[in-house]
Amino acid sequence: MPFVPHTEQDVKEMLDTIGVESIQDLFDEIPANLRVKTLPDGFPQLTEMELGRLMRKRALQDSIDLCFLGAGAYEHHIPAAVWEVTSRGEFLTAYTPYQAEASQGTLQLLYEYQTMMASLMSLDVSNASLYEGGSALSEAILMAARTHRKNKLHRIAIPQAVHPHYRDVVRAIASQLEIEIVEVPYDSATGQTTLAQLETLSTENLTALVIPQPNFFGVLEDVDALTDWAHKHNALVIGVVNPLAMSLLKPPGQWGKKGADIACGEGQPLGVPLASGGPYYGFLCCKQEYVRQLPGRIVGRTVDQEGKQGFVLTLQAREQHIRRAKATSNICTNQGLLVTASTIYMSLLGPEGLRKVALASHQNLQLLKEKLTAIPGVTLVFNSTSFHEIVVRLSKPVEAVLEQLAKEKIQAGFNLRKSYPELGNSLLICVTETKTPADIDLFVKQLSAALNAQADKSKNKNGEPCNV
Amino acid sequence: MTNNSVPKTLKYSKSHEWVRQDEDVFTIGITDHAQCMLGDLVYVELPEPESSLEVGQECAVVESVKAAADVYCPLSGEIVEINEELLENPQLVNEDPYGKGWLFRIRPFENETINLLSADQYTKQVASEAH
Amino acid sequence: MSKLIFEQSHQGRSARAQVPHVTNQKLAIPAHLLRTDQPLLPQVSELQVVRHFTNLSRKNFSIDTQFYPLGSCTMKYNPRGVHRLALLDGFANHHPLSLDMNSQGYMSCAFELQEILKSVTGMKAVSLTPMAGAQGEFAGVAMIRAYHKARNDAARTEILVPDAAHGTNPATAAQCGFKVREIPTDAAGNVDIDALRAAVGPHTAGIMLTNPSTLGVFEQKIQEIAKIIHEAGGLLYYDGANLNAILGKVRPGDMGFDVMHINLHKTFATPHGGGGPGGGPVAVGERLVPFLPTPTVTKVGDTYHWLTEKECPQTIGRLSAFMGNAGIILRAYMYARLLGKEGMIRVAEFATLNANYLLTRLKKAGFTPAFAGRRASHEFIITLKNEAKELHITALDVAKRLLDYNFHAPTMYFPLMVPECLLIEPTETESKEVVDAFADALIEILQEAKTDPDVLKTAPHTLPVRRLDEVKAARELDLVYRPQEK
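^ inputs. structure came back:
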């Protein structure tokens, strides 16, 4: 039996000690009519060798050559050391660090992570992770509602330029409580969330304004103006940001006159592979005054009985295992392993290295932008500055173009039609430091071909027009 | 941790608050038994001054390493003063629960009936809870 | 004592082989949007990074290095082959928003895991999206709420929870806007049926239960409980934390549960990672199928497709930006394939054998089980309340001393109602020798408690740090390193 070490001799000795005839006797407290005789046949058992063959075949089915998809998950170079060290058994198979003395490795790492993330956001404190970006935003919103005690009802303003899946998650979670979500439209020329749009909102019981940077379209928001507007109306500011971009762009703690109150988002760009969508991790940081409302685990530095420096989980009284129904969140297991990887990644790159990754991605976008707009049938949708993603409109159906390029093993981008029907035939394209000029040229060439092929479909073999 | 003292001059609530009347203002704290159960306090969250509270309403939180317990208002009224010292020194509640560890002062609304336990009644209740 | 990585930094250092080239072109970004200060990130060489974090890892206990008899955590062996295969290029570099046609490899694994989970739980449908147990519970309770709302029954405002329940249960119920009412446990470790009958009514939305319960014993009257709840119009939620005790032996669907979550990081051996990631898929009976969180995988002919809100209009919605902890789903699938049907059935058998054997050895050595007359499930509780009274030592002292014997402590002080308790779960992947060594260690520690209790009270002695001052940590919050300090 895989992973069960007991020999027949072991079993006999153990049953004798217990004083029963067979293992089945140990289940005698379970009502007989509930006990199943066996399980349905299902899938045959495999040895590790056979499993390897199966999984390699399946992995090949999903492999692609070039990825220009972003939309919340980004391909960056991950140094080999990151996962070599993270995959060490002492990190991989360690439990939650409740027994602090036996977990000083993980705890010190988490303290270092908290320091790095808080500083990246230019805020005072960070927790030790949440599940991922969308639920991190939801937790930030719940936190703002708990903190903003003056408001009886809570209204949260969220730009439509925030990731559509994040807004879905917020709806799924906030709708269980008395929290009203108000969406703020974006400016159709620039793709930004503007003051003009905000001014149309009622500010009664406005608990918080969510500000993305960059926003879902890759566009840079005017964070100072938006932050000051929110604070003027006694609303808290929640920044939802790309953490890699914060090495290059002004971070939430420095927005406006008073700085954002809470910052959150998806940690995946920092050393976590795309991996079909997870596991990733969510980060959450805030100003010192809100620390007791911060959900999730937090590590603190202290001393032991001999005055030696050590680390522990602290402020646990806020968490589910103690506070129960009144906890700041129900979260128990979080994303410790991914934080380990990110911390190692950030340590390898350092502040300058991280900034260069962000810069290289941004510079590649400038190159891509130039070449894309030269293709007939491709137009830029927004007239504004972007980080590493842009929105283009295509002259032909996006679905067909995507399929065509997928056959060439190129993921061309994210189809915006479902989430933003008003943008029509539009595609969100991302480029990071992983792409060379040759990659970009190939992409452009294939995209042109796909657009022309669509055009050619309207002519038959002899070049005569026919119905498509 | 002291010896679970229950001063006779004070009144008590079922949820381990003590009450001392000084003319028209009542001082509230948590009992020696309560602070003992909680262990070393690390943080105290107090009500907003001038806020109005109903009897039985959660009005404060006392937090130790192993628990965060709600404090229930033993009578309806308006908060007139909170013990700001506790924000920096929550351990005063452990060291001197009936003196320096007071939580807040409240003026009851007019014509409020106030139902509290005597020291004996509270002592009996704690004894019965011990199982 | 390890220096912090910041304390090893030197201005200008980094792992240069990892930094991409940039050109000198002028930035198109307006100045007021740029960062002007340098964030506090380490400035160290690649070797410094590898050494620092490798050394940190060596301060940890882990399943790979120690026995972890943590009750309700199921710390079984995490198969390494599974971890390596999950990181194959095709999976690791696969973008979640890739077209379905480029995602068939992952989707086939996800679909097959859905099917496997359906069959072991006896439920009708599965969603793999919840990221961990707590999120699974959230999904379950939210589905219960959606179910009553769809029936136009606005009176269902209460969720019942046993007083022995795991903290995530009431926390989740509160997060979904429900009032929580606790039901007491009787002396035999079962839910008090009379108290339950008195508590149900038209305001009952449902009950959250674990079986075996958090007390480590099988809830024998579960079918009666199901009847009471269903007759009152409520639904039953099963917390799958203890599924390892009944995998392949009993199916929650057969017990009358309407919805449940499974902890992949427990029952399906995915690695704990020092605090996550986990996986908390939910499985439902017929009544709740329309409300499952999206996306889920369906198979049409030979190809797999994602079902989203569009195809499932009554769904409670999306719980995360993408499709859950995909890498964990892959690992759980692979583990299930390595086990096969026979292997799965053996899990509960050997987990239960190990637990009962250990319980017997400890009983014979004079330890007090919380429920003397009951069988252990895959775990059991011993209470040290007598030892506490006679020898003035606590469960905490024993737990800390176990660390010196190179065993991770069992779960302590949970469930809350058993005084000075240790909740012990050996799991099926531990050999008889390890279980015996653990029993011997506890016996020796009990002896130490009689002759030299101080050695327990000041334990641990042999770890990188002694007992830590948690009060100081909470009073004088030091949560981030600030460079001006020394």
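Chain B is about 20% helix and 35% strand. Residues 14-129 of chain B form a domain with the OB fold (Dihydrolipoamide Acetyltransferase, E2P) fold (CATH 2.40.50.100).
thumbs up if we can close this ticket
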